[in-house]
Design a protein that fits this description.
By secondary structure, the chain is of the alpha+beta class. Helix content is 16%, strand content 26%. It has 3 domains: 98-197, Roll (SH3 type barrels); 204-323, Alpha-Beta Complex (endopeptidase fold (from Nostoc punctiforme)); 334-478, Barwin-like endoglucanases (Beta Barrel), CATH 2.40.40.
């Protein structure tokens, strides 16, 4: 999604602005900034007040219009889920020690999406501004972070090492200016070049608090059966889905699906931010709520109540709650090797079902739980190895392209638009399409959605093979292979 236009950019002569104090940056288009083209209002003057009959909007029934609205919202949600930022998805990143660098230029230093002056500009470092080197420190183009800007800068224009540390100690870190953003993080391909950051990450409890605070903003808004709008109306599962979507978690659409979408725990062990459910005597699950703690829940109750906070009725409850926010949000320092192994709490959920960002990938089966992690290796050994950068011990399931697994999307392309291929295609949340993951020594490519970060669905040609795969756990590495 294109960001807002940037109107403060200085205009230059025919030669354009200088490039890292030397060369040409080219036109505004070459920078790749989030600019919107200006369109003259005169272009609308010749249009008639109403379109000709042949161009008129088609008329849809209420049911068709509702379906179109749901599909549009699903597409929007999928797009929102792609918007990776450190503040929205702290569990994806890990904190490292700060390596200071200062922009040693007369005016500014470009931050680019790749290595080289032909790469898109994603921000600028003003003269004397501070950044932190995160990767490729020995390269001519180093990867840095400054504020919310992440990308590559030309190393020759940085003050580094002891000189930079002396300046920071002399003037104090908070007094230095930071980079100015030109491109939003989710439009910046370099943003996730590494998942290291110098920023302090939320703990799991803090992340839960953020979710609950956000949910409370919509108290009193209407209940609409089948709705997914937090402002104009939603039902119970639509409310839970959209609250968690704001933080990058992909939940399926109905309460019954959501009851199978995370890690099941005994309902007595529920923490604030976990999902609670009501069921009938037959075991049919019909309502989902977000637990606030102290026996309170926030949920979209009914047309009479709208979104409200109420007491949780344990007599109607399922025996389990569902944990969406993992306890293993990483806060450790990389240099100590003290990083969690990402292992999920408890065992898998039998016959777990989760929906795909483009509408409905579901896992085929959930039996035969196995763990394929390297049990004897330390976290430090795993973090950076020949296999790539260690991401964690992920849950693995499998799916195929049949109607059972994919519903009405059966036989079609993945959420990335590519046709799935056994031995290559995997589905998971958060990680950008095209990301290469090393699982058990084999390289897979993220091409589909359907599971939250920490859970990978592996594509298989035959449904029987997907069912037989069951549920496994494995150490997962982000591969450097292209």
């Amino acid at each position: 999604m294109a960001g807002a236009g940037r109107n403060r950019r200085r205009r230059w002569g025919a030669d354009g602005p200088p490039e890292e104090e030397n060369g040409s940056a080219g036109s505004d288009d070459a920078t790749g900034g989030d600019k919107t083209a200006e369109v003259s209002s005169d272009s609308d003057l010749s249009q008639s007040a109403e379109p000709p009959a042949a161009e008129a909007e088609p008329v849809f029934s209420a049911e068709q219009e509702a379906e179109r609205t749901r599909e549009s919202y699903s597409e929007w949600q999928a797009a929102e889920a792609e918007k990776v930022t450190i503040s929205r998805m702290p569990w994806l990143f890990h904190t490292v020690e700060k390596t200071y660098a200062i922009a040693d230029v007369n005016s500014w230093l470009h931050v680019r999406e790749g290595k080289g002056t032909n790469q898109k500009i994603v921000g600028i470092l003003p003269k004397g501004s501070l950044c932190y080197i995160l990767a490729d420190a020995d390269s001519d183009w180093v990867y840095v972070e400054s504020g919310d800007v992440r990308g590559f800068v030309c190393a020759r224009y940085l003050l580094r090492g002891e000189e930079a540390e002396k300046e920071v100690n002399r003037w104090q870190e908070e007094s230095f200016p930071m980079a100015e953003m030109w491109v939003k993080p989710w439009n910046n391909k370099a943003y996730t070049y590494t998942y290291a950051t110098t920023r302090t990450l939320l703990s799991s409890d803090e992340a839960r608090g953020e979710v609950l605070q956000y949910a409370k903003k919509f108290l009193g808004n209407p209940y609409v059966w089948g709705g997914t709008s937090l402002t104009n109306g939603c039902d119970c599962s639509g409310f839970a889905q959209q609250i968690f979507a704001n933080f990058g978690y992909t939940l399926p659409r109905t309460s019954r699906q959501q009851a199978k979408a995370g890690t099941r725990i005994p309902v007595q062990e529920a923490k604030p931010g976990d999902l609670l459910f009501y069921q009938r005597e037959s075991g049919f699950i019909y309502h989902v709520m977000i637990y606030l703690g102290d026996g309170k829940v926030i949920h979209a109750g009914s047309e009479a109540t709208g979104i409200l906070i109420s007491d949780f009725n344990y007599e109607k409850s399922t025996e389990f709650a569902v944990r969406v926010i993992s306890e293993e949000i990483r806060e450790s320092k990389v240099e100590t090797g003290d990083v969690d192994n990402g292992r999920k709490e408890g065992n898998s959920v039998d016959n777990q079902t989760t929906e795909n960002g483009n509408g409905g990938k579901q896992k085929a089966g959930a039996e035969n739980v196995q763990n394929t992690s390297a049990e004897n290796s330390t976290a430090g050994d795993r973090l950076e190895s020949a296999s790539g950068k260690y991401l964690g011990n992920f849950k693995l399931t499998a799916y195929c392209n049949c109607a059972v697994c994919c519903g009405r999307w059966a036989g079609g392309p993945t959420a990335s638009g590519k046709m799935p291929v056994q031995g290559r295609t995997i589905a998971t949340g958060v990680l950008p399409f095209g990301t290469k993951l090393n699982i058990g020594g084999k390289i897979y490519t993220v091409e589909d959605r359907g599971t939250p970060y920490g859970h990978i669905d592996i594509y298989m040609e035959r449904h029987a093979d997907a069912e037989e795969f069951g549920v496994r756990y494995a150490d997962v590495y982000q591969s450097e292979e292209i």
